[in-house]
Prior knowledge:
By secondary structure, the protein is of the alpha+beta class. The protein contains five helices and ten strands.
Amino acid sequence: MRLDxxxxxxxxxxxxxxxxxxxxFVRLVxxxxxxxxxxxxxxxxxxxxxxxxxxxxxxxxTDAERELRGGMLQYxxxxxxxxxxxxxxxxNYFRGANGxxxxxxxxxxxxGLEPRDKLASxxxxxxxxxxxxxxxxxxSITRHRVYLMTARGVTVSDHDRxxxxxxxxxxxxxxxxxxxxxxxxxxxxxxxADAERALRAQVDSILRAPLFYxxxxxxxxxxxxxxxxxxxxxxxxxxxxxxxxxxxxQRLTVKPEGIRAPSRLPVQAATTPAMTxxxxxxxxxxxxxxxxxxxxxxxxxxxxxxxxxxTSSVPAATSHRTP
Length: 323
């Protein structure tokens, strides 16, 4: 009996053959996938057992630190923190490049030694790996598990690149301390910058406050104007005077509000603190001397003798006025 004569039995037989072929193909794909996974696992296990632990870490750390101190540090650049780390590169993943990660006030530096090739001569010098990042506001250090969650490490990055470093076994606290010190340094720098901006704002408000002067014996409108860098016409305009006559005890505006005048405040700007000992923000060193004006108002701001600021000035800035 023919199987392709179009009978129901023939059609059923053809369908069974097609299903059996598909089943065999799926089974072949499964076996191939299983074989690839097994091979990859075998490579990982063999590489870990025979290559990872075949590197002399202590010798690599010694050579890396010697290279760091002798060739990479600039004159007068101290090391604030140092940690023993390793890096796994795609071309030599199983044998990490052991080295040191150092932080200075200027940079974050890495120096490592590429593992020696087993086929290379024993006298062949190892390849030295170096990397550096500027220790500024663009720097970021993130602590997390690295290299398939097998080690504690950090990712150091700036605005255009990043690198990952793992802490050597038994030296995890060194890397944690290094990352924490960088974070503290950046926090202190931000606080110092905020304090400097606040200080500048205080000084600017003092310089823009109105300035007054009480006329004393022997004063003339021209001498008063020259003393405060103004002209007689400006003094007359600001005080609504019709002439040049002034009276002893008369309170004159010698600088209206909103006009900046050269400051005589002994202001010291806040600076970025050192990483080793962050210093508190610097406050303006202004002598707290305040005297009452004849009209009962308080005088503030560093001004020449006889001049007073308005009472709306910042309390931290005071001045002396001779009635």
